[in-house]
Amino acid sequence: MERQYWIRSKPVYTSLLWHEKATAHLVIAEGDGGMAVLKLLQQKYPTQQVNGFFVKSPNALKNYADIISSLAPAEFKVFGNTTEALNSLKITLADCCMGTCFYVAGSEGFIWQVAKVLASVGVQDDDIDKELCGTLARTVYCVHCKAITHDAHHSVVACSGCQRQLFIRDHFSRRLGAYMGLMVDAEQPGILPSIEEVYP
Amino acid sequence: MSHLNVKVAAIEQVTEHVKHFTFISENGEKLPAFSGGSHVVLALNINGRIHRNPYSLMSSPLNTEHYGVSVRKQEMSRGGSVFMHEQIKVGSRIQITYPVNLFSISKLSHKNILIAGGIGITPFLSQIVDLNRMDTEYELHYAYRSPEHGAFRQQIEDMCGERSHFYVASDGQILDFYALLSKQPLGTHVYVCGPEPMVNAMIAAARDLGWPEKHIHNEQFTAPQAGESFKVKLALSNIELEVPSEMSMLEAIEEAGVDAPYLCRGGACGRCELDVVSCDGSIVHHDNYLTNAEKTGGKKIMPCVSRAKCQQIVVNL
Protein backbone atom coordinates (compact mmCIF):
# COMPACT_ATOMS: atom_id res chain seq x y z
CA MET A 1 0.00 0.00 0.00
CA GLU A 2 1.73 3.12 -1.23
CA ARG A 3 0.32 6.52 -0.45
CA GLN A 4 2.68 8.99 -2.06
CA TYR A 5 1.70 8.06 -5.56
CA TRP A 6 -0.96 6.15 -7.49
CA ILE A 7 -0.01 3.02 -9.37
CA ARG A 8 -2.20 2.92 -12.45
CA SER A 9 -2.16 -0.85 -12.74
CA LYS A 10 -3.85 -1.23 -9.36
CA PRO A 11 -7.44 -2.32 -10.04
CA VAL A 12 -10.38 -0.21 -8.94
CA TYR A 13 -13.41 -2.17 -7.73
CA THR A 14 -16.96 -0.83 -7.58
CA SER A 15 -20.39 -1.91 -6.37
CA LEU A 16 -22.34 -4.11 -8.75
CA LEU A 17 -25.32 -2.51 -10.50
CA TRP A 18 -27.36 -4.12 -13.26
CA HIS A 19 -26.81 -2.62 -16.69
CA GLU A 20 -30.08 -1.44 -18.12
CA LYS A 21 -28.88 -1.85 -21.69
CA ALA A 22 -27.87 -5.47 -22.17
CA THR A 23 -28.93 -8.61 -23.98
CA ALA A 24 -28.15 -10.96 -21.06
CA HIS A 25 -26.48 -10.91 -17.65
CA LEU A 26 -23.87 -13.26 -16.18
CA VAL A 27 -23.09 -13.08 -12.45
CA ILE A 28 -20.14 -15.02 -11.04
CA ALA A 29 -19.49 -14.78 -7.28
CA GLU A 30 -17.73 -16.58 -4.48
CA GLY A 31 -17.83 -16.60 -0.66
CA ASP A 32 -18.50 -13.13 0.73
CA GLY A 33 -19.28 -12.04 -2.83
CA GLY A 34 -22.67 -13.48 -1.90
CA MET A 35 -23.44 -10.12 -0.29
CA ALA A 36 -22.85 -8.36 -3.62
CA VAL A 37 -25.24 -10.85 -5.27
CA LEU A 38 -27.89 -10.19 -2.61
CA LYS A 39 -27.47 -6.45 -3.19
CA LEU A 40 -28.00 -7.05 -6.93
CA LEU A 41 -31.17 -9.00 -6.14
CA GLN A 42 -32.41 -5.99 -4.14
CA GLN A 43 -32.27 -3.83 -7.28
CA LYS A 44 -34.88 -3.57 -10.02
CA TYR A 45 -34.56 -6.94 -11.71
CA PRO A 46 -33.42 -6.97 -15.37
CA THR A 47 -35.88 -7.90 -18.08
CA GLN A 48 -33.15 -9.88 -19.90
CA GLN A 49 -32.00 -13.36 -18.98
CA VAL A 50 -29.80 -13.71 -15.87
CA ASN A 51 -27.36 -16.60 -15.33
CA GLY A 52 -25.58 -16.92 -12.01
CA PHE A 53 -22.67 -19.01 -10.72
CA PHE A 54 -22.06 -19.04 -6.99
CA VAL A 55 -19.16 -20.75 -5.21
CA LYS A 56 -19.71 -21.64 -1.54
CA SER A 57 -16.90 -20.87 0.86
CA PRO A 58 -16.58 -22.04 4.48
CA ASN A 59 -14.82 -18.74 5.29
CA ALA A 60 -17.77 -16.54 4.30
CA LEU A 61 -19.49 -14.48 6.97
CA LYS A 62 -22.91 -16.01 6.21
CA ASN A 63 -24.28 -18.99 4.36
CA TYR A 64 -25.03 -16.88 1.30
CA ALA A 65 -25.52 -19.95 -0.91
CA ASP A 66 -28.75 -20.88 0.86
CA ILE A 67 -30.12 -17.33 0.77
CA ILE A 68 -29.33 -16.94 -2.96
CA SER A 69 -30.83 -20.37 -3.71
CA SER A 70 -34.04 -19.45 -1.97
CA LEU A 71 -34.28 -16.05 -3.68
CA ALA A 72 -33.26 -16.95 -7.24
CA PRO A 73 -33.20 -20.76 -7.54
CA ALA A 74 -33.77 -20.81 -11.30
CA GLU A 75 -31.00 -18.38 -12.19
CA PHE A 76 -28.20 -19.27 -9.76
CA LYS A 77 -26.26 -22.51 -9.75
CA VAL A 78 -24.29 -23.23 -6.56
CA PHE A 79 -20.88 -24.94 -6.66
CA GLY A 80 -18.68 -26.44 -3.98
CA ASN A 81 -15.43 -25.15 -5.47
CA THR A 82 -14.10 -22.61 -7.96
CA THR A 83 -12.84 -25.15 -10.52
CA GLU A 84 -16.30 -26.68 -10.96
CA ALA A 85 -17.88 -23.25 -11.27
CA LEU A 86 -15.36 -22.09 -13.88
CA ASN A 87 -15.82 -25.28 -15.92
CA SER A 88 -19.56 -24.71 -15.94
CA LEU A 89 -19.00 -21.04 -16.81
CA LYS A 90 -16.89 -22.01 -19.84
CA ILE A 91 -19.73 -24.13 -21.21
CA THR A 92 -22.21 -21.27 -20.77
CA LEU A 93 -19.83 -18.75 -22.40
CA ALA A 94 -19.87 -20.71 -25.64
CA ASP A 95 -23.51 -19.69 -26.11
CA CYS A 96 -23.11 -16.06 -25.02
CA CYS A 97 -23.29 -13.14 -27.46
CA MET A 98 -21.98 -9.59 -27.46
CA GLY A 99 -24.27 -7.57 -25.22
CA THR A 100 -23.92 -10.01 -22.31
CA CYS A 101 -22.93 -8.03 -19.21
CA PHE A 102 -20.53 -9.57 -16.70
CA TYR A 103 -20.61 -9.09 -12.93
CA VAL A 104 -17.96 -10.69 -10.70
CA ALA A 105 -17.75 -10.54 -6.89
CA GLY A 106 -15.56 -12.14 -4.27
CA SER A 107 -11.94 -12.11 -3.16
CA GLU A 108 -9.38 -10.51 -5.44
CA GLY A 109 -7.88 -13.89 -6.28
CA PHE A 110 -11.29 -15.19 -7.37
CA ILE A 111 -12.13 -12.08 -9.40
CA TRP A 112 -8.99 -12.45 -11.53
CA GLN A 113 -9.39 -16.19 -11.95
CA VAL A 114 -12.78 -15.44 -13.49
CA ALA A 115 -11.36 -12.54 -15.53
CA LYS A 116 -8.80 -14.93 -17.03
CA VAL A 117 -11.53 -17.32 -18.18
CA LEU A 118 -13.52 -14.42 -19.63
CA ALA A 119 -10.42 -13.04 -21.39
CA SER A 120 -10.02 -16.36 -23.19
CA VAL A 121 -13.26 -15.65 -25.05
CA GLY A 122 -12.39 -11.99 -25.75
CA VAL A 123 -14.10 -10.32 -22.77
CA GLN A 124 -11.78 -7.54 -21.62
CA ASP A 125 -11.02 -6.29 -18.14
CA ASP A 126 -12.97 -3.06 -18.78
CA ASP A 127 -16.04 -5.04 -19.86
CA ILE A 128 -16.36 -6.68 -16.43
CA ASP A 129 -17.94 -5.08 -13.34
CA LYS A 130 -16.09 -6.25 -10.23
CA GLU A 131 -16.86 -5.95 -6.55
CA LEU A 132 -14.20 -6.88 -4.01
CA CYS A 133 -15.78 -8.61 -1.01
CA GLY A 134 -14.77 -9.99 2.35
CA THR A 135 -11.01 -9.59 2.28
CA LEU A 136 -8.23 -7.44 0.90
CA ALA A 137 -5.89 -10.47 0.85
CA ARG A 138 -3.41 -10.22 -2.03
CA THR A 139 -2.00 -12.72 -4.46
CA VAL A 140 1.73 -12.01 -4.82
CA TYR A 141 4.09 -12.75 -7.71
CA CYS A 142 7.74 -13.13 -6.70
CA VAL A 143 9.92 -11.24 -9.18
CA HIS A 144 12.90 -13.40 -8.13
CA CYS A 145 11.63 -16.98 -8.46
CA LYS A 146 8.29 -16.26 -10.23
CA ALA A 147 6.29 -18.29 -7.70
CA ILE A 148 2.80 -17.17 -6.71
CA THR A 149 1.93 -16.77 -3.03
CA HIS A 150 -1.76 -16.65 -2.15
CA ASP A 151 -3.67 -14.89 0.62
CA ALA A 152 -1.05 -12.42 1.81
CA HIS A 153 -2.46 -10.29 4.63
CA HIS A 154 0.66 -8.45 5.73
CA SER A 155 2.86 -5.78 4.13
CA VAL A 156 5.66 -8.35 3.87
CA VAL A 157 5.12 -12.01 3.04
CA ALA A 158 7.42 -15.02 2.77
CA CYS A 159 7.54 -16.29 -0.83
CA SER A 160 5.98 -19.74 -1.20
CA GLY A 161 8.68 -20.63 -3.73
CA CYS A 162 12.02 -19.28 -2.49
CA GLN A 163 11.17 -18.20 1.08
CA ARG A 164 12.51 -14.69 0.44
CA GLN A 165 10.74 -11.97 2.46
CA LEU A 166 8.75 -10.03 -0.17
CA PHE A 167 7.50 -6.47 0.11
CA ILE A 168 4.14 -6.30 -1.68
CA ARG A 169 3.89 -3.43 -4.13
CA ASP A 170 0.75 -1.94 -5.72
CA HIS A 171 1.90 -2.93 -9.22
CA PHE A 172 -0.71 -5.40 -10.42
CA SER A 173 -0.59 -7.85 -13.31
CA ARG A 174 -3.98 -8.55 -14.87
CA ARG A 175 -2.55 -11.53 -16.71
CA LEU A 176 -1.26 -13.13 -13.51
CA GLY A 177 -3.91 -11.67 -11.21
CA ALA A 178 -1.16 -10.82 -8.73
CA TYR A 179 0.76 -7.96 -7.16
CA MET A 180 4.51 -7.58 -7.54
CA GLY A 181 6.59 -8.85 -4.63
CA LEU A 182 10.24 -7.78 -4.15
CA MET A 183 12.81 -9.06 -1.69
CA VAL A 184 12.69 -6.51 1.11
CA ASP A 185 16.06 -7.24 2.76
CA ALA A 186 18.30 -7.60 -0.29
CA GLU A 187 20.75 -4.87 0.82
CA GLN A 188 20.89 -5.87 4.47
CA PRO A 189 19.87 -9.53 4.87
CA GLY A 190 17.75 -10.12 7.91
CA ILE A 191 16.90 -6.43 8.47
CA LEU A 192 13.14 -6.22 7.95
CA PRO A 193 10.81 -3.22 8.21
CA SER A 194 7.94 -3.45 10.67
CA ILE A 195 5.42 -5.94 9.29
CA GLU A 196 1.76 -5.01 9.61
CA GLU A 197 -1.54 -6.60 8.72
CA VAL A 198 -2.65 -4.13 6.04
CA TYR A 199 -4.69 -6.56 3.88
CA PRO A 200 -7.06 -8.15 6.42
CA MET B 1 7.22 18.20 -35.97
CA SER B 2 9.14 16.68 -38.85
CA HIS B 3 7.49 16.23 -42.20
CA LEU B 4 7.78 14.05 -45.26
CA ASN B 5 8.16 15.56 -48.70
CA VAL B 6 6.25 13.61 -51.32
CA LYS B 7 5.28 14.06 -54.93
CA VAL B 8 2.20 12.88 -56.73
CA ALA B 9 3.02 9.89 -58.92
CA ALA B 10 -0.48 9.12 -60.19
CA ILE B 11 -4.05 10.38 -59.98
CA GLU B 12 -7.08 8.26 -60.75
CA GLN B 13 -10.69 9.40 -61.01
CA VAL B 14 -12.44 6.63 -59.03
CA THR B 15 -16.01 7.90 -59.06
CA GLU B 16 -17.64 11.17 -60.07
CA HIS B 17 -16.60 12.77 -56.75
CA VAL B 18 -13.63 10.67 -55.61
CA LYS B 19 -10.04 10.90 -56.80
CA HIS B 20 -7.24 8.60 -55.72
CA PHE B 21 -3.72 10.02 -55.31
CA THR B 22 -0.50 8.03 -55.22
CA PHE B 23 2.41 9.65 -53.38
CA ILE B 24 6.07 8.68 -53.60
CA SER B 25 8.83 10.23 -51.56
CA GLU B 26 10.64 13.09 -53.26
CA ASN B 27 14.06 11.52 -52.70
CA GLY B 28 12.97 8.15 -54.08
CA GLU B 29 13.39 6.32 -50.78
CA LYS B 30 10.80 4.14 -49.12
CA LEU B 31 8.19 5.92 -47.01
CA PRO B 32 7.86 5.14 -43.28
CA ALA B 33 6.04 1.97 -42.26
CA PHE B 34 2.48 2.30 -40.98
CA SER B 35 -0.32 0.12 -39.62
CA GLY B 36 -3.79 -0.31 -41.12
CA GLY B 37 -6.14 2.55 -40.27
CA SER B 38 -3.41 5.22 -40.16
CA HIS B 39 -3.78 8.69 -41.60
CA VAL B 40 -1.48 11.50 -42.71
CA VAL B 41 -2.09 15.24 -42.64
CA LEU B 42 -1.49 17.02 -45.95
CA ALA B 43 -0.25 20.62 -45.90
CA LEU B 44 -1.87 22.36 -48.86
CA ASN B 45 -0.81 25.84 -49.88
CA ILE B 46 -4.02 27.47 -51.05
CA ASN B 47 -3.56 31.09 -52.12
CA GLY B 48 -0.65 31.53 -49.75
CA ARG B 49 -2.42 29.99 -46.77
CA ILE B 50 -1.59 26.55 -45.45
CA HIS B 51 -4.56 24.21 -45.11
CA ARG B 52 -3.89 20.96 -43.26
CA ASN B 53 -6.30 18.13 -44.04
CA PRO B 54 -6.14 14.57 -42.64
CA TYR B 55 -6.64 11.65 -45.04
CA SER B 56 -6.57 7.92 -44.31
CA LEU B 57 -3.83 5.90 -45.94
CA MET B 58 -5.52 3.26 -48.06
CA SER B 59 -2.54 1.65 -49.71
CA SER B 60 -1.10 -1.60 -48.41
CA PRO B 61 1.01 -1.33 -45.22
CA LEU B 62 3.12 -4.08 -46.79
CA ASN B 63 4.29 -1.77 -49.56
CA THR B 64 5.75 1.57 -48.52
CA GLU B 65 7.18 2.39 -51.97
CA HIS B 66 4.13 4.63 -52.14
CA TYR B 67 1.18 5.90 -50.11
CA GLY B 68 -2.37 6.11 -51.43
CA VAL B 69 -5.13 8.46 -50.29
CA SER B 70 -8.57 9.07 -51.68
CA VAL B 71 -10.29 12.41 -51.53
CA ARG B 72 -13.97 13.07 -51.94
CA LYS B 73 -14.70 16.49 -53.39
CA GLN B 74 -16.68 18.44 -50.81
CA GLU B 75 -18.14 21.49 -52.57
CA MET B 76 -19.39 22.99 -49.32
CA SER B 77 -16.08 22.77 -47.47
CA ARG B 78 -13.27 25.26 -47.01
CA GLY B 79 -11.51 24.27 -50.18
CA GLY B 80 -8.98 21.58 -49.29
CA SER B 81 -10.70 18.80 -51.20
CA VAL B 82 -11.56 21.07 -54.13
CA PHE B 83 -7.90 22.12 -54.27
CA MET B 84 -6.83 18.46 -54.30
CA HIS B 85 -9.24 17.74 -57.16
CA GLU B 86 -8.56 20.81 -59.28
CA GLN B 87 -5.02 21.98 -58.57
CA ILE B 88 -2.99 18.92 -57.63
CA LYS B 89 -1.48 17.28 -60.72
CA VAL B 90 0.90 14.42 -61.32
CA GLY B 91 4.31 15.78 -60.26
CA SER B 92 2.89 18.20 -57.63
CA ARG B 93 4.91 18.30 -54.44
CA ILE B 94 3.15 18.09 -51.06
CA GLN B 95 4.35 18.08 -47.50
CA ILE B 96 2.72 15.42 -45.32
CA THR B 97 3.09 14.35 -41.70
CA TYR B 98 4.34 10.94 -40.62
CA PRO B 99 1.47 8.42 -40.41
CA VAL B 100 -0.50 8.34 -37.15
CA ASN B 101 -2.99 5.64 -36.23
CA LEU B 102 -6.09 6.60 -34.25
CA PHE B 103 -8.18 3.79 -35.75
CA SER B 104 -6.30 0.54 -35.36
CA ILE B 105 -7.69 -2.97 -35.07
CA SER B 106 -7.85 -4.08 -31.41
CA LYS B 107 -5.20 -6.69 -30.66
CA LEU B 108 -7.59 -8.24 -28.12
CA SER B 109 -10.37 -8.82 -30.65
CA HIS B 110 -11.54 -12.28 -31.65
CA LYS B 111 -13.68 -10.99 -34.50
CA ASN B 112 -13.93 -7.62 -36.21
CA ILE B 113 -16.89 -5.99 -37.93
CA LEU B 114 -15.94 -3.10 -40.19
CA ILE B 115 -18.71 -0.72 -41.22
CA ALA B 116 -18.12 1.90 -43.90
CA GLY B 117 -20.37 4.59 -45.32
CA GLY B 118 -19.33 6.20 -48.61
CA ILE B 119 -15.81 7.63 -48.58
CA GLY B 120 -15.50 6.25 -45.02
CA ILE B 121 -14.28 3.08 -46.73
CA THR B 122 -10.71 4.43 -47.01
CA PRO B 123 -9.19 3.49 -43.60
CA PHE B 124 -10.55 -0.03 -43.95
CA LEU B 125 -8.61 -0.73 -47.15
CA SER B 126 -5.30 -0.66 -45.28
CA GLN B 127 -6.83 -2.43 -42.28
CA ILE B 128 -8.01 -5.30 -44.48
CA VAL B 129 -4.41 -5.95 -45.57
CA ASP B 130 -3.42 -6.26 -41.88
CA LEU B 131 -6.43 -8.46 -41.07
CA ASN B 132 -5.74 -10.78 -44.00
CA ARG B 133 -2.10 -11.01 -43.00
CA MET B 134 -2.89 -11.73 -39.32
CA ASP B 135 -5.61 -14.18 -40.36
CA THR B 136 -8.09 -12.51 -37.98
CA GLU B 137 -11.80 -13.12 -38.42
CA TYR B 138 -13.59 -10.13 -39.89
CA GLU B 139 -16.45 -8.96 -42.07
CA LEU B 140 -16.79 -5.71 -43.99
CA HIS B 141 -20.12 -3.95 -44.46
CA TYR B 142 -19.98 -1.14 -47.01
CA ALA B 143 -22.97 1.13 -47.58
CA TYR B 144 -23.16 3.75 -50.32
CA ARG B 145 -25.73 5.86 -52.13
CA SER B 146 -25.93 4.35 -55.61
CA PRO B 147 -23.94 1.97 -57.85
CA GLU B 148 -21.80 4.78 -59.34
CA HIS B 149 -20.71 5.83 -55.82
CA GLY B 150 -19.40 2.42 -54.80
CA ALA B 151 -15.73 3.34 -54.87
CA PHE B 152 -13.22 0.43 -54.77
CA ARG B 153 -15.94 -2.24 -54.78
CA GLN B 154 -14.05 -4.52 -57.15
CA GLN B 155 -10.83 -4.15 -55.15
CA ILE B 156 -12.71 -4.95 -51.94
CA GLU B 157 -14.35 -8.03 -53.45
CA ASP B 158 -10.91 -9.23 -54.57
CA MET B 159 -9.40 -8.63 -51.12
CA CYS B 160 -12.26 -9.86 -48.90
CA GLY B 161 -14.27 -12.30 -51.00
CA GLU B 162 -17.30 -13.51 -49.09
CA ARG B 163 -16.40 -11.42 -46.07
CA SER B 164 -17.54 -8.26 -47.89
CA HIS B 165 -21.19 -7.14 -47.91
CA PHE B 166 -22.54 -4.22 -49.91
CA TYR B 167 -25.59 -2.05 -49.29
CA VAL B 168 -26.66 0.20 -52.15
CA ALA B 169 -29.23 2.70 -50.90
CA SER B 170 -30.67 3.42 -54.37
CA ASP B 171 -31.47 -0.30 -54.70
CA GLY B 172 -33.27 -0.20 -51.36
CA GLN B 173 -30.53 -2.15 -49.56
CA ILE B 174 -30.36 -0.87 -46.01
CA LEU B 175 -27.76 -1.85 -43.42
CA ASP B 176 -29.69 -2.76 -40.24
CA PHE B 177 -27.30 -2.16 -37.33
CA TYR B 178 -29.48 -3.99 -34.81
CA ALA B 179 -29.70 -7.10 -36.96
CA LEU B 180 -25.96 -6.98 -37.64
CA LEU B 181 -24.86 -6.46 -34.04
CA SER B 182 -27.25 -8.92 -32.39
CA LYS B 183 -25.96 -12.47 -31.94
CA GLN B 184 -22.29 -11.61 -32.51
CA PRO B 185 -19.90 -13.85 -30.58
CA LEU B 186 -18.14 -12.57 -27.46
CA GLY B 187 -14.87 -10.80 -28.22
CA THR B 188 -16.25 -9.03 -31.31
CA HIS B 189 -15.17 -5.44 -31.96
CA VAL B 190 -17.00 -3.06 -34.29
CA TYR B 191 -15.43 -0.20 -36.27
CA VAL B 192 -17.35 2.48 -38.14
CA CYS B 193 -16.24 5.26 -40.46
CA GLY B 194 -18.63 7.35 -42.51
CA PRO B 195 -21.05 10.26 -42.34
CA GLU B 196 -21.84 11.51 -38.85
CA PRO B 197 -25.50 10.35 -38.70
CA MET B 198 -24.44 6.83 -39.69
CA VAL B 199 -21.63 6.73 -37.14
CA ASN B 200 -23.99 7.96 -34.42
CA ALA B 201 -26.70 5.47 -35.35
CA MET B 202 -24.24 2.58 -35.23
CA ILE B 203 -22.83 3.63 -31.86
CA ALA B 204 -26.34 4.07 -30.45
CA ALA B 205 -27.37 0.59 -31.64
CA ALA B 206 -24.25 -1.04 -30.16
CA ARG B 207 -24.76 0.66 -26.80
CA ASP B 208 -28.44 -0.18 -26.81
CA LEU B 209 -27.59 -3.86 -27.25
CA GLY B 210 -25.20 -3.67 -24.29
CA TRP B 211 -21.89 -3.62 -26.18
CA PRO B 212 -19.11 -2.34 -23.91
CA GLU B 213 -17.42 0.92 -24.94
CA LYS B 214 -14.01 -0.69 -25.47
CA HIS B 215 -15.48 -2.77 -28.31
CA ILE B 216 -16.91 0.20 -30.23
CA HIS B 217 -14.48 2.13 -32.44
CA ASN B 218 -15.10 5.02 -34.78
CA GLU B 219 -13.19 7.52 -36.78
CA GLN B 220 -14.74 10.81 -37.68
CA PHE B 221 -12.57 13.58 -38.97
CA THR B 222 -14.43 16.82 -38.66
CA ALA B 223 -13.42 19.51 -41.11
CA PRO B 224 -12.98 22.85 -39.37
CA GLN B 225 -16.14 24.88 -39.87
CA ALA B 226 -16.19 28.54 -40.73
CA GLY B 227 -17.76 30.89 -38.21
CA GLU B 228 -17.60 34.39 -36.83
CA SER B 229 -14.16 35.89 -36.37
CA PHE B 230 -12.86 36.25 -32.80
CA LYS B 231 -9.76 37.35 -30.93
CA VAL B 232 -7.37 34.98 -29.17
CA LYS B 233 -4.78 35.84 -26.55
CA LEU B 234 -1.99 33.33 -25.98
CA ALA B 235 -1.21 33.86 -22.30
CA LEU B 236 2.20 32.15 -22.18
CA SER B 237 3.58 33.57 -25.45
CA ASN B 238 1.89 36.92 -24.81
CA ILE B 239 0.57 37.12 -28.36
CA GLU B 240 -2.79 38.47 -29.46
CA LEU B 241 -4.26 37.40 -32.75
CA GLU B 242 -7.49 37.36 -34.70
CA VAL B 243 -9.10 34.21 -36.10
CA PRO B 244 -10.79 35.16 -39.38
CA SER B 245 -14.12 33.53 -40.16
CA GLU B 246 -12.66 31.21 -42.82
CA MET B 247 -9.68 30.04 -40.76
CA SER B 248 -9.48 27.60 -37.87
CA MET B 249 -8.12 28.74 -34.51
CA LEU B 250 -5.15 26.36 -34.87
CA GLU B 251 -4.34 27.72 -38.33
CA ALA B 252 -4.47 31.30 -37.02
CA ILE B 253 -2.14 30.38 -34.14
CA GLU B 254 0.30 28.78 -36.60
CA GLU B 255 0.10 31.81 -38.86
CA ALA B 256 1.15 33.95 -35.90
CA GLY B 257 4.35 31.92 -35.77
CA VAL B 258 3.52 29.75 -32.76
CA ASP B 259 4.40 26.06 -33.03
CA ALA B 260 1.23 24.64 -31.45
CA PRO B 261 0.90 20.88 -30.91
CA TYR B 262 -1.40 18.90 -33.20
CA LEU B 263 -1.85 15.45 -34.72
CA CYS B 264 -5.11 14.71 -36.52
CA ARG B 265 -6.50 18.20 -37.12
CA GLY B 266 -9.95 16.66 -37.17
CA GLY B 267 -11.12 16.89 -33.56
CA ALA B 268 -10.41 13.22 -32.92
CA CYS B 269 -7.07 12.70 -31.22
CA GLY B 270 -6.90 15.31 -28.45
CA ARG B 271 -3.30 16.35 -29.08
CA CYS B 272 -4.05 20.05 -29.64
CA GLU B 273 -6.16 20.47 -26.48
CA LEU B 274 -5.70 23.89 -24.88
CA ASP B 275 -6.64 25.13 -21.41
CA VAL B 276 -8.97 28.11 -21.54
CA VAL B 277 -7.97 30.83 -19.04
CA SER B 278 -10.95 33.03 -19.78
CA CYS B 279 -13.56 33.65 -22.45
CA ASP B 280 -15.96 36.58 -22.51
CA GLY B 281 -18.48 34.66 -24.59
CA SER B 282 -19.03 30.98 -25.33
CA ILE B 283 -16.97 28.20 -26.89
CA VAL B 284 -18.43 26.46 -29.94
CA HIS B 285 -17.15 22.89 -29.66
CA HIS B 286 -16.99 20.85 -32.88
CA ASP B 287 -14.68 18.04 -31.74
CA ASN B 288 -15.37 14.39 -30.94
CA TYR B 289 -12.72 14.28 -28.24
CA LEU B 290 -13.82 16.22 -25.15
CA THR B 291 -16.51 14.71 -22.95
CA ASN B 292 -19.84 16.51 -22.70
CA ALA B 293 -18.91 17.55 -19.16
CA GLU B 294 -15.64 19.08 -20.40
CA LYS B 295 -17.48 20.86 -23.21
CA THR B 296 -19.98 22.40 -20.81
CA GLY B 297 -17.18 23.15 -18.34
CA GLY B 298 -15.69 25.65 -20.80
CA LYS B 299 -12.14 25.14 -19.55
CA LYS B 300 -10.84 23.30 -22.60
CA ILE B 301 -10.89 23.84 -26.36
CA MET B 302 -9.66 21.81 -29.35
CA PRO B 303 -8.42 24.63 -31.63
CA CYS B 304 -8.19 22.40 -34.73
CA VAL B 305 -11.97 22.41 -35.23
CA SER B 306 -13.59 24.44 -32.45
CA ARG B 307 -14.19 28.18 -32.29
CA ALA B 308 -15.36 30.79 -29.84
CA LYS B 309 -18.26 33.19 -30.06
CA CYS B 310 -16.75 36.03 -28.10
CA GLN B 311 -14.69 39.20 -28.17
CA GLN B 312 -11.63 37.49 -26.71
CA ILE B 313 -10.63 34.05 -25.52
CA VAL B 314 -7.44 33.60 -23.48
CA VAL B 315 -5.67 30.23 -23.69
CA ASN B 316 -2.63 28.79 -21.97
CA LEU B 317 -0.18 28.56 -24.85
Note down, in words, how this protein is organized.
The complex is a heterodimer of chains A (200) and B (317). Chain A contains four helices and ten strands; from the N terminus they run βαβαβαβαββββββ. By secondary structure, chain A is an alpha/beta fold. Chain A has two domains: 24-132, Nucleotide-binding domain of ferredoxin-NADP reductase (FNR) module (Rossmann fold), CATH 3.40.50; 138-183, no CATH class. In chain A, a hairpin with a 4-residue loop joins β9 and β10. In chain A, 37% of the residues are buried. The mean pLDDT of chain A is 94. Chain B folds into three domains: 3-100, Elongation Factor Tu (Ef-tu), domain 3 (Beta Barrel), CATH 2.40.30.10; 111-219, 3-Layer(aba) Sandwich (Rossmann fold), CATH 3.40.50.80; 230-315, Ubiquitin-like (UB roll), CATH 3.10.20.30. In chain B, 19% of the residues lie in helices and 34% in strands. Chain B contains seven helices and 19 strands. In chain B, strands 1, 2, 3, 4, 5, 6 and 7 form a seven-stranded antiparallel β-sheet that branches. In chain B, strands 10-9-8-11-12 form a five-stranded parallel β-sheet, sandwiched between helices. In chain B, strands 14-13-19-15-17 form a five-stranded mixed β-sheet. The interface between A and B is medium-sized, with 18 and 21 residues.
Taking pLDDT < 50 over at least 5 consecutive residues as the criterion, the unreliable ranges of chain A are none
Overall, the morphology of chain A is: elongated
Predict the CATH topology of the largest domain in chain B: Rossmann fold
Largest interface: A-B, 18 and 21 residues
Question: What would you say the CATH architecture of the largest domain in chain B is?
Answer: 3-Layer(aba) Sandwich
User: What is the gyration radius of chain A calculated from CA atoms?
Assistant: 18 Å
Mean pLDDT of chain A: 94
For the record, the count of structural domains of chain B works out to: 3
Termini Cα gap of chain B: 17 Å
User: What separation lies between the terminal Cα atoms of chain A?
Assistant: 13 Å
**How many structural units, i.e. domains of chain A?**
2
Secondary structure: helix percent of chain A: 10-25%
Q: Major sheet of chain A, described briefly?
A: 5 strands, parallel
Hey, roughly how much beta strand do the residues of chain B contain?
25-35%
Q: Treating each run of at least 4 consecutive H or I residues as one helix, how many helices of chain A?
A: 4
